[in-house]
Structures are given as C-alpha cells and as structure tokens.
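Recap from last week: sequence in, structure out.
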Amino acid sequence: MKKVIAQYREAILPEHRGNPLIEALPPMLDEQEILLAFSHFPPPDEHIRWSGSASVRRHYVDRIKNFRCPQTCYTECYRYLERVIRDGYAARNPLKSSTQQYLHYYADERPDIEPEDGYFHPSADTVTIVGNSGSGKTTMLEQVLGYFPQVIEHTEYKGTIPGVSHQVIWIKVNCPYNASVRDLCESILAMLDNVLGSDTTKPATRNGSLARQIAQKIKSSFLGVLVIDEMQRLKFSRTGGEATLIDFLHEIVDSLGVSLVFCGNHPFEETLSKKLRIARRAESGGFMIISAPGYNTPDWQSFITYLWPLQWTNVETPLTRELNEELFLLSRGNLSVAQLIYRRAQMQVIGSGNEVINKAVLRAAVPPLSARAEDFTDITTFLSAPDPVPGKPDTHRINSVSEAINDDGSESSCLLITGDLTRPQHTELYDKTMDALKSFEDKITRIKYRSVFRSLSAEQENFGRLTAYGLLCTDPSLE
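Predicted structure tokens:
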C-alpha cells in the first residue's frame, strides 16, 4: 500500500478547481513520462557476470522477472484510468453540500430540501480490458495503478478543513467464482479495511444490510476506482446470478459515483456482448483488447532491444536477426513467455562450459507446460517437426540433457543440445572438442583437398569414399 500526505495542484479544468479530491492526485504525465514511469531495466552488473560463480550468476538471472518494458497500450490504459478517476471525483467535492447529501443518504434517497449545490448526480464510467492469458494486461494494470497512491491523507486544504480525512484512490479485487454479490462485497470490505489500516468490518448477515454497509464504506473512503480482475469467470446462465452481480456493480457506478475497471481473459468480451445494456455501460469509459505485438512493431523491437543485454553468461551473445526471430516464433510474441524462455535459456547454459546462447538453446528453453497449452500448440509442432523446411528455421526436436560440474565442484543439470556443434556432446571429449572448435574456422579456410570434396559432391558419391584418400576420420578421440 502506498500512502501519502496530500499535496494540492491546481486542476486543469475550471470545473475541477477547488475540489481537494482531484487537486491531490498526482500530476498528469505525457507520453514520454508514462513510458519512463512504468519502465524497469535491472542493471546487468558486469562484475558479477565476468567474475561470479555459476551458482551466483544463476541467481542474478532471476532479475529478468522484474524486467518491465512498457508497451504503447500502457499510454492508453493510463489515459483511461486517469480520466475515469478524475471524472468520478468531479461530482464528489467534499466541500459542496451535494456531497453531504451523497454521504448521508442511501442510493436514490434525497432530503426534502434540495442542497444549495443541487442534488448529487454521479459522473463515473466503466473501463473494460480484455486479453489472452499472459498478454500482460494485469501487469500493465497494476503498474498503471501503482503510479497513483492508494491512499491520500488530507489534513488542511487552503486554510480550511477539506471534509475528508482519507481518500482511497483505488482497490483491486478478483471476481468471485460463483458470481456471488455477497462474496464480492466481503472482498471489497476486507480490502478497504486493509488499505485504511482499520479494524476488520464484520459483514452484515442480511444482504440488504450488507449492501448498505458496503455503500457507506465506499462513500466514507471516497473510493476513486474499483478494479475487478478475472472477469472471465462471469458467464451468464439461466440462474441469473451473473446478471445480479453486474447490476450490483453498475449500482456502484450509478448511485455511488465510483468508476469501475473490468479486466478479464477472452472470451469475456463475448459474455458482455450478449447483453446490450451491459455491453454499452461496460465500455462507457473505454475498451481495450490487449494482444501480443507483431514482430515488426515498435513494441516487440523495443522489448527485445532492452531485454537482450540482460545476460549473466560469461560469453556475450549479441542480438542477431535470427535470434530475434527465433525468440519471437517460440513465444508467439507473448512477452511474459519470451522473458521466461530467455531466463531459462541462460539458466541452462551457465556453468556448462559453453555459455553461448543460440537458436537451439532458445528452443530447448521453451517451458513444457506453455508448449502444451492450446494457445501454443503450434509451438509444439514447430519444435517436433522431423525435417527442416527450406526457407524456414531449422525445426529439429531438442531433448538431450546431461550432467555437468559447476564452478564450485557440485553437480547440476545442464542442457547439452542434440546436433549442436557449438558445444560438446560427451563430457569425456570436452577438452579435445573445445580445442578443435577454437581453430575450426582457420582449418576450414586452409583445407588442401577442396577439389576432392567438389568431385564427390558433383558425383553424388558417398563420403565414405574419403577413406580411399585417407581423409575420413573414424575415431576423433584418437586421430
């Protein structure tokens, strides 16, 4: 929880000026400031990379978990949230008499005498964010919410009492599995108690009393936006339980003036579209579909450009177009999966004696459960294809694992890639193989029998005939 003391800034819109709830919010960010605010690039730590033991460097690889490279959708999400929070507070100025009516009367109840500023009229909206699992929508949403303090403490506003002590900007809860209004109310109550640091509120036993209880708690805390994640759990059926929950949530918007954010996986948008009334209101404040970026988009290219230098291998593997394309194909552009593959790839080669990251290593690092998921069934095919297709990446299956020795002498499982000539396949031949590889390119350029190979190739003869020329090595460990 992030709690701050109110610092007031003059509101941009004239109608928002003089409202302590709005003027206490953080300043608006432009596009460049948004990208900087939501970025996090862990430092590689060159000293650890070049002098640290394998076990220590593996720990440093976990820093990739905290890597954040905001996409262009972050700007849109921030704009939506910033707007619905301010708009929701516009009608709830604690210094106005209409807000006092709002605080002391339930739902559509009104006093006999109209307040000096008129009756309370809510101005909140609903934002809906939809995307595939792992597309980064929840991470994006939590980062954007994290820019706003969760609680602002008010003491004095322009020499007067502001009419509010604690302002809760946002809370985030999950949609109940059974679409129960009561379960959701209890989650909201518990979350508000938690962020305010107050004693636990005992939920009322009767639903009507519970509804009044949650309404009063939301009002007194001046909640700005209620975020509900995992909305894909909501599926309308004949029982009507889901419709009841949606009606309750929109009552929060209509009567309490609190903006909502729905966040869910596909096919949540299909669920919403079945009910026109619900669909219209669910996108009143904005609608976003989060999908994996394309290879040639700025989102993917900036992501891989900032991710790739985070290497703790003792060999620097530069980012090439081939490696970039391979990681994109293996992750299908899913940024969280791409991060996981890259992290696993480094874990597998660190301490193996050859810490170069190549295409085969990336393929072997594909997480097995993700490879079997429905969204990634094409990856399984990609990895298990028997023969390479001309013009496409090599697609041999990778499944060879062997034991290696760490720097500290302990044994650990390190990956040895089948058919990968850049790393030894048998530990007993390690020294000889590495010596041969060091001067391999030089030896190739100085080969004396080029005409023999050309003749055999042209005649389509078996290379077994090299024995006749004394050029076939049958036992590399001895010859």
